[in-house]
Amino acid sequence: MPDGNPILARLKDDLATLEAGSQLRELAHPAGIDLCSNDYLGLSRDLRLRQAVIRALNEGAAIASTGSRLLSGNAPTWEELETEFARFVGAESALFFTSGYAANVGLLSALLGPGDCVFSDSANHASLIDGIRLSRARKVIFPHLDLNFLEARLRSEDAEPGRKFIVVESVFSMEGDRAPLEELAALAARFGAELIVDEAHAVGVFGREGRGLLDEVGLAGCVLASVHTCGKALASMGAFVACPETLKRFLINRARTFIFSTALPPYMAFQIRAAIGLVREADDRRCRVLEFAVTLRRRLQAAGLETGRSDSPIVPVLLGSNEGALAAARALRGAGFAVRAIRPPSVPLGTARLRLSLTATLTQQDCDRLARVLPECCRADVLDGVTTDRGSAGLSAGMPGARLKPGATAPGR
Ligand SMILES: Cc1ncc(COP(=O)(O)O)c(C=O)c1O
Fold first, then answer.
1. Which residue has the higher pLDDT, 379 or 243?
2. In whole angstroms, what is the distance from residue 359 CA to residue 291 CA?
3. How far is the CA of 96 from the centre of ligand 1 (A)?
4. Which of 36, 130, 173, 201 to mutate to test the pocket of ligand 1 (most atoms within 8 A of CB)?
5. Which fold has domain 29-45+283-396?
6. Taking 60 as the threshold, does the pLDDT of residue 30 lie above it?
7. Ligand 1 center to residue 39 CA distance, Å?
8. How far apart are CA 18 and CA 24, in angstroms?
9. I want to staple 267 with a disulfide (CB 3.0 to 4.6 A). Which of 6, 61, 249, 407 is the partner?
10. What is the pTM assigned to this prediction?
11. Is the CB–ligand 1 distance for residue 56 below 6 Å?
């Protein structure tokens, strides 16, 4: 490709703009004590899971699906797995997608349409946002967990024709806080809306035997659809949409990310099945990781750091500026912890942060050391080495940087 190619020149300009705003991403190899994965139960390196895959392969499980589920890619093992998962989360049925992203985009773009109105939390994951965009439904983005705002907008839309949907995560991926699902379900019932819940960060961690937050609050099987990814606590990949049988049959016919994509290889179904078994028995790991999070939050808050409304193994440390978050992440990596700075558009502008995702395989010593060194890594002079903006100035005064602004939405989210 010639050097002066105008398209590549435009891309270079775009990359330079990202770099100037401390928003350029580069691939890295995480090293150190893991604080940046979603492996909440630590099952990704579990020998039992590895052995389940080896056993399945030795017994002849195929290593390629060779096509979409509607063509050559279906196998009894997928259907058995869907039945088992539906039973696990108390739904009538479940449909497996190749990723959580594909599940959310496929579900929302197929189910919602231009005549509908969707109420979407401002902190929702990009896959929910993209699914909503593709559906061309009218959107009302409500400030993160602001139920008063949501109620007012539901009321004002009450007379409008078309169906209403409320879309939330049960545990928010960047905030680590929990949606008040009972109140949301009550609002949905009052205004004739359907509730759709993404359980990506709750499955395996909350609920009886890790069934998720809907189960924990007694709402299992009570929402139109819930999405459960397998790439996080379940240490595998893909995702289930749990829903009534009719919706499953509709998605098989209408969800483009299901129809037009090669199925995952059948051996993965054995891995997920084994992972569900391990998750169900993992009460000790669930307790451990949640206790780590409680203690860490308490110690960080006592040191003057802002951890938002986190109430899960995801503990954000809000720093405000991109530069400050990058500097703190660098310092923490220097202390031996694998951590990445999270910046817009993954989070709203001005709320760059460290996102610590804890895992049950951390040791008590790891957690103690983390609680000790993290405030050091967020000290004003560490952050000021790079910038003297709002985030670091707040910290230097013992008052952490920019808090989450309710309703603030980053471009691209
Ligand atoms: C809330 C939420 N939903 C969906 C996804 C997408 O899942 P997957 O990584 O399986 O595509 C993620 C991934 O990070 C997520 O955090």
1. 243
2. 11
3. 14
4. 173
5. Aspartate Aminotransferase, domain 1 (3.90.1150)
6. yes
7. 13
8. 5
9. 61
10. 0.92
11. no
CA 159 to chain centre: 34
Give the pLDDT band of residue 276 (cuts 50, 70, 90): very high
The answer to whether the CB of 173 is under 6 A from ligand 1 is yes
Q: Quick check: CB of 357 below 6 Å from ligand 1?
A: no
Annotated catalytic, 198? yes
Rounded-to-10 torsion of CA 164, 169, 172, 174: -80
Regarding the beta carbon of 257 and ligand 1, being less than 6 Å apart is answered no
Domain boundaries, the chain: 29-45+283-396, 61-280
Spatial distance between the Cα atoms of 185 and 353, rounded to a whole number of angstroms? 31
Q: Is the CB of 346 under 6 A from ligand 1?
A: no
Quote the ligand 1 centre to 213 CA distance (angstroms): 16
For residue 34, what is the enclosing H or E element? strand 33-34
Give pLDDT tens digits for 322-357.
999 999 999 999 999 999 999 999 999 999 999 999
Q: What is the pLDDT of residue 91?
A: 98
* Percent of the residues in the chain that have a pLDDT greater than 70, as a whole number: 93
Counting Cα atoms < 13 Å in the Cβ hemisphere of 75 gives 21
Domain at 61-280, CATH from 1.10.10.10, 3.30.1490.190, 3.60.15.10, 3.40.640.10: 3.40.640.10
104 is catalytic: no
> Percent of the chain scored above 90 by pLDDT?
88
Tell me the mean pLDDT in the region 69-88: 98
Confidence of residue 385 (pLDDT cuts 50, 70, 90): low
